[in-house]
Design goal:
Number of domains of chain B: 3
Largest sheet of chain A: 5 strands, mixed
Shape of chain A: globular
Shape of chain B: globular
Structural class of chain B: alpha+beta
Distance between the termini of chain A: 46 Å
Structural class of chain A: alpha+beta
CATH superfamily of the largest domain in chain A: Beta-grasp domain
Bound molecules: flavin-adenine dinucleotide, FE2/S2 (inorganic) cluster
Strand order of the largest sheet of chain B: 4-5-10-6-7
Order of helices and strands of chain B: EHEHEEEHHHHHHEEHEEEEEEEHHH
Number of strands of chain B: 14
Radius of gyration of chain A: 16 Å
Mean pLDDT of chain A: 97
Oligomer: heterodimer
Radius of gyration of chain B: 19 Å
Low-confidence stretches of chain A: none
Strand content of chain B: 25-35%
Number of helices of chain A: 5
Number of domains of chain A: 2
Distance between the termini of chain B: 60 Å
Order of helices and strands of chain A: EEHEEEHHHH
Largest interface: A-B, 33 and 35 residues
Number of strands of chain A: 5
Largest sheet of chain B: 5 strands, antiparallel
Low-confidence stretches of chain B: none
CATH topology of the largest domain in chain B: Uridine Diphospho-n-acetylenolpyruvylglucosamine Reductase, domain 3
CATH topology of the largest domain in chain A: Ubiquitin-like (UB roll)
């Protein structure tokens, strides 16, 4: 097939679309669905800017993080996918977003979507993750601006909020 | 969306069973590329390093992500089992630490969630961490075609850079690693510029010990030759003798002489040669605590 009709559920919304066989998930979400909160950067799995969560019932949280630049959209039929654009609920930011703002963990912002999704994933797995676990978890997400310290501080702050919320 | 093309055009084939997949491989041969987790294939497509007319994506074949262990058959790893799954497996961690360590340090969390172990072996990169670990542990790759299955020993699998013992009409179904005995240990170590990077040099060893005496050994290194390689001279030196500090220094010197590394973006040949001896010594120590 050169094209495939698929259904994607992005941040809970259903999209019935036809995609080209050779389009990556990043391309489809950005160009066809216009959900440009998702960023495309290196396109080679190295920077993490394109990080999304995808449902996968083999994981403890029912979700896993992947680089959307390395997956073919046509192979994601029926999948539930979560991007940074879906974190805000009714005008209220997610604790991780809140913490990134408060700690100044965002400068140019290009890495932030992927960085925040990665942090959400780390903390959903373990809200009490310590500095070492956070830093190890953040491997695969590159930030050219902040120097990471503020990102780690933000993750720790958000972890406290998320642990208290449970 | 031709205005934003990233990957070249191809036709996608999404078989629902292994028998459909091998039919496709038989029909299209070298006009097709097999895709599992895609962490190598998507990049090869993006760089135009491969230009297939067809991509055979295995992702929709059910029940291919198994990892099983039995005392009789050893470890079996299905074609869609990922590095993440292997790292979660306590049996693998305990019985095949070399492979576990290779999978645990492979790429980033996102990469480990997508990358398959079989794909790492089939890509056969000289710096493929699971290639190095599996060469030390021994085992075989099970390949399937329309004419049936065959098992190729890992010792015969890597032929040259980018060349493996797989016919273009074959799909890899699983990897098999032999059962491990109680006195067996193994370890994998690698050197990188940063933790999240491909190996400059990697080393793996599996040992069967009787006290401080080495009864049997397999040793492999990565990124020091066109493929991951066994270091047979080192194995000969170790086999049947007591492991001492002096012996390990001699092994290190031999390893440095035997390897044939290259200069590339990650390191120089001289550095790799020097460091490979050190790494060989360290990995033996890591495996057997001497
Ligand atoms: C950012 C990044 C970091 C990385 N870091 C490391 C690292 O530290 N160490 C390391 O070893 N590797 C690393 N890799 C490479 C590693 O992710 C891959 O080698 C991976 O294991 C391949 O598995 P895959 O499922 O993604 O395979 P794919 O990309 O789908 O395929 C890989 C190759 O195997 C073939 N293939 C796959 N499955 C089959 C099958 N069943 N039958 C026949 N052919 C098959 C494909 O045609 C292709 O040639 C990294 C990659 C990226 C992008
Ligand atoms: S754009 Fe996907 S990892 Fe960089
Ligand atoms: S804020 Fe600019 S890359 Fe991270």
């Amino acid at each position: 097939m050169k094209k495939r009709a698929i259904t994607l559920f992005i941040n809970g919304d259903e999209y019935n679309i036809t995609v080209d066989a050779d389009e990556t998930l990043t391309q489809v979400i950005r160009n066809q669905l216009n959900l440009t909160d998702l960023k495309h950067c290196c396109g080679r799995g190295e920077c993490g800017a394109c990080t999304v969560q995808v449902e996968d019932d083999r994981y403890p949280t029912g979700k896993k993080i992947i680089n959307s630049c390395l997956s073919l959209a046509a192979m994601m039929d029926g999948k539930r996918i979560y991007t940074v654009g879906g974190l805000e609920k009714g005008g209220t930011l997610h604790p991780v977003q809140e913490a990134f703002v408060e700690q100044g963990a965002v400068q140019c912002g290009f890495c932030s979507g992927g960085m925040i999704m990665k942090t959400v994933d780390i903390l959903e797995n373990n809200a009490k993750a310590g500095e070492a676990e956070i830093r190890e978890g953040l491997e695969g997400n590159i930030c050219r601006c902040t120097g990471y310290t503020k990102i780690v501080e933000a993750a720790k702050q958000a972890g406290k909020v998320m642990a208290a919320g449970k | 969306m031709s205005n934003s093309r990233i990957l070249p055009e191809f036709e996608l084939l999404a078989p629902k069973t292994m028998s459909e997949a091998v039919d496709m491989a038989a029909r299209y041969g070298d006009r097709a590329t097999v895709l599992a987790g895609g962490t190598d294939v998507i990049i090869m497509l993006e760089k135009n390093a491969v230009k297939p007319e067809y991509v055979i994506a295995l992702g929709e074949i059910p029940d291919l992500d198994y990892i099983t262990y039995s005392k009789a058959d050893g470890l079996t790893i299905g074609a869609l089992a990922t590095a993440y799954q292997l790292v979660q497996d306590k049996k693998v961690k305990k019985k095949y630490p070399a492979l576990w360590q290779a999978a645990a340090s492979l790429g980033s969390p996102q990469i480990r969630n997508a990358a398959t172990i079989v794909g790492n072996i089939l890509r056969a990169s000289p710096s493929g961490d699971c290639c190095c670990a599996m060469l030390a542990l021994g085992g075989s790759v099970v390949l399937e075609s329309t004419s049936g299955r065959r098992e190729v020993s890992i010792d015969d699998f890597f032929i040259d850079y980018g060349k493996i013992e797989r016919r273009e009409d074959e799909i890899a179904v699983e990897l098999k690693l032999p059962p491990v005995e109680d006195a067996s240990t193994s370890a994998f170590l690698r050197m990188t510029r940063m933790t999240f990077d491909l190996s400059k040099v990697s080393a793996a060893v599996s040992l069967q010990m009787s006290g401080k005496k080495c009864k049997a050994v397999r040793m492999a290194m990565g990124a020091v030759a066109p493929t991951a390689i066994r270091i047979k001279k080192a194995e000969t030196m170790l086999e049947g003798v007591t492991i001492t500090e002096k012996l390990l220094s001699d092994v290190a010197a031999t390893v440095s002489r035997q390897v044939k590394p290259i200069d590339d973006v990650r390191s120089t040949a001289d550095y790799r040669r020097e460091v490979s001896g050190v790494l060989a010594k360290r990995v033996i120590k890591a495996a057997c605590n001497v």
